[in-house]
Amino acid sequence: xxxxxxxxxxxxxxxxxxxxxxxxxxxxxxxxxxxxxxxxxxxxxxxxxxxxxxxxxxxxxxxxxxxxxxxxxxxxxxxxxxxxxxxxxxxxxxxxxxxxxxxxxxxxxxxxxxxxxxxxxxxxxxxxxxxxxxxxxxxxxxxxxxxxx
Amino acid sequence: xxxxxxxxxxxxxxxxxxxxxxxxxxxxxxxxxxxxxxxxxxxxxxxxxxxxxxxxxxxxxxxxxxxxxxxxxxxxxxxxxxxxxxxxxxxxxxxxxxxxxxxxxxxxxxxxxxxxxxxxxxxxxxxxxxxxxxxxxxxxxxxxxxxxx
Lengths: 149, 149
Prior knowledge:
Two copies of one chain form a homodimer. Chain A is an all-alpha fold. Chain A has helices spanning 3-21, 25-51, 58-71, 74-77, 96-99, 101-116, 118-121, 125-146. Chain A has a single domain (2-146), classed as Cytochrome c/b562 (Four Helix Bundle (Hemerythrin (Met), subunit A), Up-down Bundle), CATH 1.20.120. In chain A, helix 3 (58-71) packs antiparallel against helix 6 (101-116) and helix 6 (101-116) runs antiparallel to helix 8.
Protein backbone atom coordinates (compact mmCIF):
# COMPACT_ATOMS: atom_id res chain seq x y z
CA UNK A 1 0.00 0.00 0.00
CA UNK A 2 1.37 3.41 -0.98
CA UNK A 3 2.56 5.70 1.77
CA UNK A 4 -0.02 8.34 0.82
CA UNK A 5 -2.75 5.75 1.23
CA UNK A 6 -1.41 4.70 4.61
CA UNK A 7 -1.30 8.34 5.65
CA UNK A 8 -4.86 8.84 4.43
CA UNK A 9 -6.06 5.81 6.39
CA UNK A 10 -4.21 7.02 9.45
CA UNK A 11 -5.87 10.43 9.21
CA UNK A 12 -9.30 8.93 8.60
CA UNK A 13 -8.75 6.48 11.44
CA UNK A 14 -7.85 9.31 13.76
CA UNK A 15 -11.18 11.00 12.99
CA UNK A 16 -13.02 7.76 13.59
CA UNK A 17 -11.13 6.91 16.73
CA UNK A 18 -11.60 10.41 18.06
CA UNK A 19 -15.34 10.01 17.52
CA UNK A 20 -15.44 6.57 19.09
CA UNK A 21 -13.27 7.64 22.00
CA UNK A 22 -16.18 9.88 22.97
CA UNK A 23 -18.38 6.79 23.20
CA UNK A 24 -19.27 5.60 26.69
CA UNK A 25 -16.60 3.49 28.39
CA UNK A 26 -18.90 0.49 28.53
CA UNK A 27 -19.38 0.68 24.75
CA UNK A 28 -15.65 0.91 24.10
CA UNK A 29 -15.02 -2.01 26.45
CA UNK A 30 -17.79 -4.03 24.81
CA UNK A 31 -16.39 -3.36 21.34
CA UNK A 32 -12.84 -4.37 22.09
CA UNK A 33 -13.94 -7.47 23.98
CA UNK A 34 -16.25 -8.42 21.10
CA UNK A 35 -13.40 -8.17 18.62
CA UNK A 36 -11.29 -10.42 20.85
CA UNK A 37 -14.11 -12.96 21.28
CA UNK A 38 -14.60 -13.31 17.53
CA UNK A 39 -10.83 -13.43 16.97
CA UNK A 40 -10.37 -16.12 19.62
CA UNK A 41 -12.78 -18.44 17.93
CA UNK A 42 -11.18 -18.04 14.51
CA UNK A 43 -7.78 -18.67 16.10
CA UNK A 44 -9.34 -21.78 17.65
CA UNK A 45 -10.47 -23.07 14.29
CA UNK A 46 -7.03 -22.52 12.75
CA UNK A 47 -5.32 -24.08 15.78
CA UNK A 48 -7.54 -27.14 15.46
CA UNK A 49 -6.47 -27.49 11.84
CA UNK A 50 -2.82 -27.01 12.80
CA UNK A 51 -3.10 -29.71 15.47
CA UNK A 52 -4.93 -32.08 13.16
CA UNK A 53 -8.13 -31.99 15.24
CA UNK A 54 -9.90 -30.61 12.21
CA UNK A 55 -9.21 -31.47 8.57
CA UNK A 56 -7.29 -28.71 6.82
CA UNK A 57 -9.60 -26.84 4.50
CA UNK A 58 -7.96 -24.04 2.53
CA UNK A 59 -11.00 -21.84 1.94
CA UNK A 60 -12.19 -22.14 5.51
CA UNK A 61 -8.69 -21.45 6.81
CA UNK A 62 -8.36 -18.37 4.64
CA UNK A 63 -11.79 -17.21 5.75
CA UNK A 64 -10.86 -17.38 9.41
CA UNK A 65 -7.40 -15.96 8.75
CA UNK A 66 -9.02 -13.04 6.96
CA UNK A 67 -11.33 -12.52 9.94
CA UNK A 68 -8.39 -12.39 12.33
CA UNK A 69 -6.46 -10.05 10.04
CA UNK A 70 -9.39 -7.67 9.57
CA UNK A 71 -10.13 -7.38 13.25
CA UNK A 72 -6.53 -7.27 14.39
CA UNK A 73 -5.98 -3.56 14.87
CA UNK A 74 -9.57 -2.38 15.08
CA UNK A 75 -9.77 -2.26 18.88
CA UNK A 76 -6.87 0.16 18.95
CA UNK A 77 -7.46 2.19 15.79
CA UNK A 78 -11.18 2.41 16.58
CA UNK A 79 -10.22 4.26 19.75
CA UNK A 80 -11.75 1.61 21.99
CA UNK A 81 -9.02 2.09 24.58
CA UNK A 82 -9.94 5.71 25.22
CA UNK A 83 -9.15 7.57 28.43
CA UNK A 84 -11.07 6.28 31.43
CA UNK A 85 -11.95 2.94 29.90
CA UNK A 86 -10.00 1.00 32.47
CA UNK A 87 -13.37 1.00 34.21
CA UNK A 88 -17.06 1.31 33.37
CA UNK A 89 -17.63 -2.40 32.80
CA UNK A 90 -15.76 -5.57 33.79
CA UNK A 91 -12.41 -5.44 32.01
CA UNK A 92 -9.01 -7.07 32.29
CA UNK A 93 -7.34 -4.10 30.64
CA UNK A 94 -4.17 -3.36 32.60
CA UNK A 95 -3.59 0.30 33.62
CA UNK A 96 -0.21 0.09 31.84
CA UNK A 97 -2.19 0.32 28.58
CA UNK A 98 -2.49 4.03 29.37
CA UNK A 99 0.69 4.64 31.37
CA UNK A 100 2.81 2.94 28.65
CA UNK A 101 0.68 3.88 25.66
CA UNK A 102 3.55 3.77 23.17
CA UNK A 103 4.68 0.32 24.26
CA UNK A 104 1.08 -0.91 24.16
CA UNK A 105 0.70 0.36 20.64
CA UNK A 106 3.96 -1.34 19.65
CA UNK A 107 2.72 -4.65 21.06
CA UNK A 108 -0.61 -4.25 19.25
CA UNK A 109 1.20 -3.45 16.02
CA UNK A 110 3.27 -6.64 16.34
CA UNK A 111 0.04 -8.63 16.67
CA UNK A 112 -1.58 -6.85 13.78
CA UNK A 113 1.44 -7.32 11.51
CA UNK A 114 1.52 -11.01 12.31
CA UNK A 115 -2.25 -11.31 11.79
CA UNK A 116 -2.00 -9.69 8.36
CA UNK A 117 0.39 -12.42 7.23
CA UNK A 118 -2.16 -15.11 8.08
CA UNK A 119 -4.41 -15.04 5.00
CA UNK A 120 -1.53 -15.73 2.62
CA UNK A 121 -0.08 -18.38 4.95
CA UNK A 122 -3.44 -20.09 5.36
CA UNK A 123 -3.34 -21.51 1.85
CA UNK A 124 -1.06 -24.28 2.99
CA UNK A 125 -1.08 -26.26 6.23
CA UNK A 126 2.63 -26.01 6.91
CA UNK A 127 2.86 -22.27 6.35
CA UNK A 128 -0.31 -21.89 8.43
CA UNK A 129 1.32 -23.72 11.35
CA UNK A 130 4.34 -21.44 11.18
CA UNK A 131 2.27 -18.25 10.92
CA UNK A 132 0.01 -19.37 13.75
CA UNK A 133 2.95 -20.05 16.05
CA UNK A 134 4.22 -16.56 15.33
CA UNK A 135 0.77 -15.08 15.94
CA UNK A 136 0.51 -16.88 19.27
CA UNK A 137 3.73 -15.24 20.45
CA UNK A 138 2.33 -11.79 19.65
CA UNK A 139 -0.93 -12.58 21.48
CA UNK A 140 1.04 -13.72 24.51
CA UNK A 141 3.44 -10.80 24.30
CA UNK A 142 0.62 -8.31 24.60
CA UNK A 143 -1.46 -10.28 27.10
CA UNK A 144 1.48 -10.89 29.44
CA UNK A 145 1.96 -7.17 29.94
CA UNK A 146 -1.44 -5.65 29.29
CA UNK A 147 -4.12 -8.14 30.32
CA UNK A 148 -4.58 -8.58 34.02
CA UNK A 149 -5.00 -12.08 35.42
CA UNK B 1 -15.48 -20.94 -5.93
CA UNK B 2 -15.80 -24.50 -7.30
CA UNK B 3 -18.69 -26.60 -6.10
CA UNK B 4 -16.30 -29.14 -4.61
CA UNK B 5 -14.71 -26.39 -2.57
CA UNK B 6 -18.08 -25.15 -1.41
CA UNK B 7 -19.01 -28.69 -0.45
CA UNK B 8 -15.72 -29.11 1.37
CA UNK B 9 -16.29 -25.88 3.28
CA UNK B 10 -19.82 -26.95 4.11
CA UNK B 11 -18.60 -30.26 5.48
CA UNK B 12 -15.79 -28.65 7.43
CA UNK B 13 -18.20 -26.01 8.73
CA UNK B 14 -20.60 -28.71 9.89
CA UNK B 15 -17.82 -30.29 11.94
CA UNK B 16 -16.93 -26.94 13.41
CA UNK B 17 -20.50 -25.93 14.08
CA UNK B 18 -21.24 -29.32 15.61
CA UNK B 19 -18.30 -28.80 17.94
CA UNK B 20 -19.30 -25.25 18.80
CA UNK B 21 -22.94 -26.19 19.27
CA UNK B 22 -21.73 -28.24 22.23
CA UNK B 23 -20.31 -25.09 23.76
CA UNK B 24 -22.22 -23.62 26.68
CA UNK B 25 -25.23 -21.48 25.72
CA UNK B 26 -23.66 -18.39 27.26
CA UNK B 27 -20.57 -18.85 25.08
CA UNK B 28 -22.63 -19.25 21.92
CA UNK B 29 -24.70 -16.19 22.84
CA UNK B 30 -21.55 -14.19 23.61
CA UNK B 31 -19.98 -15.17 20.29
CA UNK B 32 -22.91 -14.23 18.12
CA UNK B 33 -23.46 -10.95 19.97
CA UNK B 34 -19.75 -10.15 19.65
CA UNK B 35 -19.87 -10.67 15.90
CA UNK B 36 -22.87 -8.34 15.70
CA UNK B 37 -21.18 -5.68 17.87
CA UNK B 38 -18.10 -5.60 15.66
CA UNK B 39 -20.24 -5.63 12.52
CA UNK B 40 -22.41 -2.77 13.78
CA UNK B 41 -19.44 -0.49 14.24
CA UNK B 42 -18.05 -1.21 10.78
CA UNK B 43 -21.51 -0.57 9.32
CA UNK B 44 -21.48 2.70 11.27
CA UNK B 45 -18.20 3.76 9.73
CA UNK B 46 -19.44 3.00 6.21
CA UNK B 47 -22.77 4.72 6.88
CA UNK B 48 -20.92 7.81 8.08
CA UNK B 49 -18.98 7.85 4.81
CA UNK B 50 -22.20 7.33 2.82
CA UNK B 51 -23.88 10.23 4.65
CA UNK B 52 -20.86 12.48 4.25
CA UNK B 53 -20.22 12.66 8.00
CA UNK B 54 -16.83 11.09 7.34
CA UNK B 55 -14.61 11.67 4.32
CA UNK B 56 -14.73 8.72 1.92
CA UNK B 57 -11.49 6.75 2.18
CA UNK B 58 -11.26 3.78 -0.14
CA UNK B 59 -8.83 1.64 1.84
CA UNK B 60 -10.64 2.23 5.12
CA UNK B 61 -14.00 1.53 3.48
CA UNK B 62 -12.72 -1.70 2.00
CA UNK B 63 -11.25 -2.66 5.33
CA UNK B 64 -14.56 -2.26 7.13
CA UNK B 65 -16.46 -3.84 4.25
CA UNK B 66 -14.16 -6.83 4.44
CA UNK B 67 -14.77 -7.05 8.19
CA UNK B 68 -18.54 -7.10 7.66
CA UNK B 69 -18.25 -9.67 4.86
CA UNK B 70 -15.98 -11.97 6.86
CA UNK B 71 -18.18 -11.96 9.93
CA UNK B 72 -21.47 -12.10 8.07
CA UNK B 73 -22.32 -15.78 8.26
CA UNK B 74 -20.07 -16.83 11.12
CA UNK B 75 -22.73 -16.65 13.86
CA UNK B 76 -24.83 -19.16 11.96
CA UNK B 77 -22.17 -21.39 10.40
CA UNK B 78 -20.23 -21.44 13.67
CA UNK B 79 -23.26 -23.07 15.25
CA UNK B 80 -23.76 -20.21 17.69
CA UNK B 81 -27.55 -20.61 17.47
CA UNK B 82 -27.50 -24.14 18.85
CA UNK B 83 -30.44 -25.79 20.59
CA UNK B 84 -31.29 -24.22 23.92
CA UNK B 85 -29.47 -20.95 23.28
CA UNK B 86 -32.63 -18.91 23.46
CA UNK B 87 -31.60 -18.67 27.12
CA UNK B 88 -28.50 -18.92 29.24
CA UNK B 89 -27.58 -15.26 29.03
CA UNK B 90 -29.46 -12.08 28.10
CA UNK B 91 -30.44 -12.45 24.45
CA UNK B 92 -32.92 -10.92 22.03
CA UNK B 93 -32.92 -14.05 19.90
CA UNK B 94 -36.54 -14.76 18.96
CA UNK B 95 -37.79 -18.35 19.49
CA UNK B 96 -38.78 -18.37 15.80
CA UNK B 97 -35.05 -18.78 15.06
CA UNK B 98 -35.54 -22.41 16.09
CA UNK B 99 -39.19 -22.98 15.16
CA UNK B 100 -38.59 -21.54 11.64
CA UNK B 101 -34.98 -22.62 11.25
CA UNK B 102 -35.10 -22.79 7.45
CA UNK B 103 -36.56 -19.31 7.10
CA UNK B 104 -34.01 -17.97 9.59
CA UNK B 105 -31.20 -19.49 7.58
CA UNK B 106 -32.64 -17.97 4.40
CA UNK B 107 -32.73 -14.53 6.01
CA UNK B 108 -29.15 -14.94 7.25
CA UNK B 109 -28.04 -16.03 3.79
CA UNK B 110 -29.59 -12.89 2.28
CA UNK B 111 -27.58 -10.78 4.69
CA UNK B 112 -24.40 -12.72 4.07
CA UNK B 113 -24.77 -12.52 0.28
CA UNK B 114 -25.30 -8.78 0.49
CA UNK B 115 -22.36 -8.41 2.89
CA UNK B 116 -20.08 -10.27 0.51
CA UNK B 117 -20.77 -7.73 -2.22
CA UNK B 118 -19.57 -4.90 0.02
CA UNK B 119 -15.79 -5.11 -0.41
CA UNK B 120 -15.99 -4.71 -4.18
CA UNK B 121 -18.58 -1.95 -3.86
CA UNK B 122 -16.54 -0.10 -1.25
CA UNK B 123 -14.00 1.06 -3.80
CA UNK B 124 -16.30 3.83 -4.92
CA UNK B 125 -18.60 6.03 -2.84
CA UNK B 126 -21.63 5.72 -5.09
CA UNK B 127 -21.50 1.94 -5.35
CA UNK B 128 -20.88 1.82 -1.59
CA UNK B 129 -24.06 3.81 -0.95
CA UNK B 130 -26.06 1.42 -3.10
CA UNK B 131 -24.57 -1.70 -1.53
CA UNK B 132 -25.07 -0.31 1.96
CA UNK B 133 -28.74 0.46 1.32
CA UNK B 134 -29.18 -3.13 0.15
CA UNK B 135 -27.34 -4.43 3.21
CA UNK B 136 -29.54 -2.39 5.51
CA UNK B 137 -32.64 -4.05 4.08
CA UNK B 138 -31.22 -7.48 4.82
CA UNK B 139 -30.30 -6.46 8.39
CA UNK B 140 -33.83 -5.17 8.92
CA UNK B 141 -35.39 -8.19 7.24
CA UNK B 142 -33.78 -10.54 9.69
CA UNK B 143 -34.13 -8.32 12.75
CA UNK B 144 -37.83 -7.64 12.13
CA UNK B 145 -38.62 -11.34 12.40
CA UNK B 146 -35.89 -12.80 14.56
CA UNK B 147 -34.75 -10.14 17.01
CA UNK B 148 -37.14 -9.42 19.84
CA UNK B 149 -37.76 -5.83 20.85
